[in-house]
Structures are given as C-alpha cells and as structure tokens.
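Pinned message: reference record for Bifunctional NAD(P)H-hydrate repair enzyme
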Amino acid sequence: MKILSAAQIRALDQATIQAEGITSVELMERAAAAFTEWLLEKLAAHPQREVHVFCGPGNNGGDGLAAARLLHLAGQAVRVWLLPAARHSADFTANHQRLPSEVPCIELDAYQLPELSSSAVLVDALFGTGLNRPLTGVAAAVVHYLNNSSAPVVAVDMPSGLLTDAPQPKSSPVVCAHYTISFELPKLAFLLPQNADYVGQWELVSIGLNTTVIHKTPVDNYYTDLKLLTNRLPARQRFAHKGTYGHALLLGGSYGKIGAAVLAAQACLHSGVGLLTLAVPAVGYTVAQTAVPEAMALPDVGQDYIGELPNLKGYSVVAIGPGLGQQPDTLRVLEQLLRTCPAPLVLDADALNLLGSNRHLLALLPPDTILTPHPKEFERLTQPAHDDYHRLELLRAFCARHRCYVVLKGAYTCIGTPTGTLYFNSTGNPGMATGGSGDVLTGVVAALCAQGLAPLDAALLAVYAHGRAGDLGAQQIGQMGLTAGIIAAHLGPALEELTTPPTF
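Predicted structure (tokens):
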C-alpha cells in the first residue's frame, strides 16, 4: 500500500474527480458517508450519546458538515460548532447550505467555549491535511479545549494541527485524538512515534479513490500489507528435503545471555530453515543441545564468549549478534566475518553495538547485508536524530551508503533499502515489547535468507510474519502475557498465511 504526501493526496482527489466525472462535493459526500458509517457503528451500543462536530472553514470542515447531516438523518443527536473565518471553501459552503435547519449550528467563541459532557463524542473536522502552519488564535484555543475535554475525540482524516509529512513545529497546538479515521491510504505521520499521542488509534475507510492514479503515482514510502507480499514466499515442494531450504549458521550467546541465541535459533527453525548450526561459547553448549535439539550445536573455544570464527563453508546464510557480548576477541571474530563471509549476512544486537563502537568496520559490510537495529542501536551506527523524520533521512542515507538493508524495529518497523525506498510494517502489537522479541526476528530473517529469498523479500516477509505471530499469540493469551518464546511458536502459522499456493 502506497503512502502519499499531502500534495499527492490532493492530486489524487482531483484525478478521481476528473476520471469519474464527479464533483468535489460528491467526492466529499463519499468521505462523509464512510466516516459516518464508522462512527455510527461505534455508537450503536450507545445511541443516546450526543455528537459535537467542530468544523473549520476549509474542506475538512466540509467533511464535518456533511457527516453532521448524515448523522442527523440517521437519527443521531448532533450539534455543529463553526470556527469563525472570513472565507470558506466552496465545498464547505455547499455542505453548510445542505445542513438541515434542525441541526444546531453555532459559531465558536474563544472566550465562551461550550461545556460538554464526558458522555459526548467530539469530532475534529477543523483542518485535516490542509494545514501548513501552526495554529493560533481561536483555532489554537479550540484545540486546547478539545484536548482538555474528558470526552473521546475522533479526527476526520488527520488530527488538526498535525502536519502530514513534515516535522511538527515545537509548541504547535495539535488535537490529541483518540481515533483518527483516514481515507483510502495511510499518512506517514501516523507511523512515527512522535505523533502517537496525536493520532491515537487510526483506521482507514475507502472512498473509491482512483486505483489507476494510485498505481501510477511514484512514492518512496510503502505500508506493507498482504497485497504487497503476494507471490514472495513460494509453497513448500512435495519432494523437497532439508537441503532444499538452506543451512543457516547462527553465532550468538555469552555467559548469562545464551537464551538470546536459543530464541533466535528456535525462531529460525520455526521459519522453515532446512538445517541450523548454532555456534555458542562452551558455557552454552549443554543449553543449546537441550533447548534446541533440532539444531547442531557448535561449541566455541572460548568458555564464556565467542572468540573464534567457524569454518564458513557450506552455509547459506550467517547471522550474528543475539546475546553475543562485546569482548575484544568477539570483535575480531566479527571483523573476520565481515572480511571473509561468502554467504548473506544478518547482523543484530551486540554485532551492531560492536559496529557502532568501531565504525571503521562499516566499510567492510558486504552488499545486501541485513541489519536489524532498534532505534538506539541505529543511533550508535549513525548519529542522534533530531526527530522521527530526520531518523528516516538518516536511514535512507545509511542504506544507500553501505548498500545494505536496515530493519529499524518499532511499532511500525521500517525497512530501509539501498534505493531509498522505505517499507513500514502493518502487523504486531505492544505486547511484543518484551525481551527476546528482537532475537526472534533475527532468526526469521536468517531462515528466509537461507531458503534463497532476496534480501528485500526476506526482510519484508520476516518482519510481517514476526508481527503476525505476535498478533496470533496475543489472541490466545493477551498482550500482557506475550513472550518471545510464544512469538516464535506462532511463526509457522504466520508464514503459512503468506505462502503462495501453486496456481490452478
């Protein structure tokens, strides 16, 4: 699914109007109808709740006015509050004129804002995506008023005051919505941690925007969904054997952190790898043999940490990092691996921390290496980010410079590519914020690389399946009870959902 800029969204609206021979008011009616349907479904259990719609002077206000009319026609108690303005958009005016006289419509006064019950529902239709500067005056006062209310706030398309695809000015007032109902495609702003308190829970509703135009619109940001992943994971072959699906080498673990390597190994095995060799320090040998009997355990010469690089011949992929530690001998192993590894590489955890402390080694990264940092680990590889948008710029630059793929972990894990295209993941839940979850992801990436998938496909599928496995686990035991081991156990069903069956 493509992520369009604010300018591209406006162009898409116009292209849909032209292609379908409709008016902008008719397209606005579609948006209002889709929003109203969503809201009425939420209100079905509480039909007595009054809805207060706060409308700005532009097209977002026109959406709000149209929604107010539709809510009224559906029998819902509704009241409209208008932001004072010298000028209004044509579509706002058209919908203002269509508003039934029975619907109270009152102009807002910054000094006499209405007192509203906590049982009311507040609809933010002030500005949407049409804003390019901070709010001031009455508009700012209304935003502060909405944010201080104890009633739930639902934003139409975009919380007012929030910029669609640029950093937010400091101290700029923004509506803190509980829900944001957007149209057709996600906005980049929805996917960034710094905007979480503004966006709340966001959902998409379709308004029939022209699919041909969407297909032709060039973008460098995508939201990963099932459609995007179609045909990337082939079905298992009837006459396949363990050699068909590759042999992965996983180097990890140190004294007190053998569990990280075990979790990565279990995830690798649950993700379809044919063979797995788990290289651990001697202290972890018994643990590895016991906890992961399906893997071949390869004890290192070092007692408490890995200090020697195994023979790399015959491996389809090499992954290093979970629980690795940062000993000087381990650093030498990593450098030797970067210089000599003939197979695809996956780097995580302490392997990334070692790189961050020894940045000269970044020049040794083989092309198409996959790195899986969380934001702090990525910061050690680059520099502190001013904001989430700056972090994305750093991500693009890093991937281009080192010709690598970076899986930047988070609520909407972002995959950076050498071409500059970014992919934001759509699966997962807060219960996955638990120790070992990242180690599990490393195992999935390694397994898919071992099976011969291209690095981009391996990263996309691994991140999606990892999140989906977390969702499946949470469905059974709840988010609070989710552990890394449970995520690993659900990887098989998650990947099965992505498998492409033979065509008929």
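Pinned by admin. Summary line: The chain is about 40% helix and 15% strand.
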